[in-house]
Design brief:
single chain, 104 residues, alpha+beta, 4-stranded mixed sheet, 3 helices, 4 strands, binds zinc ion
Length: 104
Amino acid sequence: MKAPKYSPTWFPPDQFKLGGRTWTTELVHRRGQWAGTCTPSHCRIRLNLRCIESDEEMRHTFIHELLHAVAATMGWKSFYRNEGKIDALACLLTQFEATAVWRG
Ligand SMILES: [Zn+2]
């Protein structure tokens, strides 16, 4: 087994709430070509460190899955399934998160 090539310095929240339901985020090392999954029935996001190679990619993958979670919470089924829109929005929000300068 190969050692992981990337050691994260940015981490997603372990837990957060959306619409009163508590979601958890798990970091896993799984075989397969998926970087993240969203499972609304378990209020769970998984990020696969075997397929993530940088903090930027970690942030992007988390925000992408978070948007699936938001869509599921809102009952927006077609948005939930629209990978193109979810990912385009994730790109912009990742850029925002990485570049925002907050007062103080
Ligand atoms: Zn997706």
